[in-house]
Description:
Blueprint: H1 9-20, E1 42-46, E2 49-52, E3 57-60, H2 75-87, H3 96-108, E4 114-118, H4 121-136, E5 140-144, E6 157-158, E7 165-166, E8 168-169, H5 176-179, E9 182-185, H6 190-199, E10 202-207, H7 223-234, E11 237-241, H8 253-257, E12 264-267, E13 278-282, H9 284-287, H10 306-318, H11 323-345, E14 353-357, E15 360-364, H12 373-377, H13 381-393, E16 396-397, H14 414-429
Parallel strand pairs: 3-16, 5-9, 5-10, 10-11, 11-12
Antiparallel strand pairs: 1-2, 2-3, 4-13, 6-8, 7-9, 12-13, 14-15
Helix pairs in contact: 2-10, 3-10, 6-7, 11-14, 13-14
Bound molecules: pyridoxal-5'-phosphate.
Amino acid sequence: MTISLRDTRSADQYARALTYLPGGVNSPVRAMRAIGRDPLFVERGRGAELFDVDNNSYVDWVCSWGPLICGHAHPQIVAAVTAAAERGTSFGAPTSGEVDLAEEVSRRVPGVQMLRMTSSGTEASMSVIRLARAATGRTKILKFAGAYHGHVDGLLADAGSGLATQGIPASPGVPQEVAASTIVVPWNDHEALVAATAEHELAAILAEPLPANMGLVPAAAGFLELLRARADETGALLVFDEVISGFRVAPGGAQELFEITPDLTVMGKVIGGGLPAAAYGGPRELMERIAPAGDVYQAGTLSGNPLAVAAGLTTLALLDGEQPYANLAATTTALAEGLADAARSAGLQDHVQIAAQTGLLTVFFSAAPVTDYAAAQACDHDAYAAWCRGLLARGVYVPASQYEAWFPSLAHTPEHVERTISAAAAAFAEIEP
Ligand SMILES: Cc1ncc(COP(=O)(O)O)c(C=O)c1O
């Protein structure tokens, strides 16, 4: 079923967009196809609220899929970006802000002594793999089913049949031989990980330490420790993709929270404060393999862009100290508990699971907790879609896919949480258990 938003400005814009943009969008999930409706077109955002071109307002739990940990158009971030723009939007030459940002990141993230900035998380993932291959002299990498690290050819690999197999292309256009260099293992599967790391000489074990691209599916007890141990035992580098978890679940990301330090770290989203920026980093001896310090080539016209750096630096400053994280944790907990109560009141306690971690949350329509990609795939996606449409109709904007996380921010107030819970209760009541 597709709900068309006939006679709205969003519908007009979408019709026009379909003429010029594939699927009417610049990134697939925005099209809202997974929940069977047309996309809404955004006019503006303020704090935790979003306004569409028809002047409907929404409590926004997507927050641009993660970068907006301080909410939309935060006055300090806008002022910093404006001031930077007045000095010039790009120089292609070093600026001291880039060094400030690297220093701030290094102060927070245990595994990052030095970093290289890029413009997107995809670019950072692509580059970190090149570095891992150069440093180990090996080709194969291991990733987990259901993890997303950007649309790099070698990372758009799906599991073949059987456990821990060589990957197969997850999209037409990805060469078979490129996908075959990626070993895909089920998340939280100790046995499969041990088998794959014994069988294949790996350059890197690449993981989201707090996976949030199959919905939020934390590691089982001991699994992150196992990743660290298997990397050390086999000579592979452990790479944590903290594009989502970085600066969000703790100042130093999931690696600080779970006390497991990777060899290399991929960062994005929050680091750019809502402008295009990402980075990869690690200890000096590895990072100095990157050109021009070393021989591993990687470059970017807009890398370390002064506007993005200004937004990132201001965002990190707004996250300084313990209070912001305590607030984020309190918002997330209130939201998770309220949603669980609402599901219970609708008689859905055996059909809904809520996973939450500071600044991240997923509502799964599943009878049991979701621990891997197969379980995420087995969720009742139709029920999620119906519930999501119900929330949107009541002015609450949540991810238009069961495979994405919600992003609570510092701009969300108890009143936003309340509004969300009452809309959620009404939308749950429309779902057949
Ligand atoms: C964990 C993770 N890594 C990498 C990426 C890719 O980042 P980008 O969209 O900036 O290319 C994403 C994007 O959502 C992500 O969630």
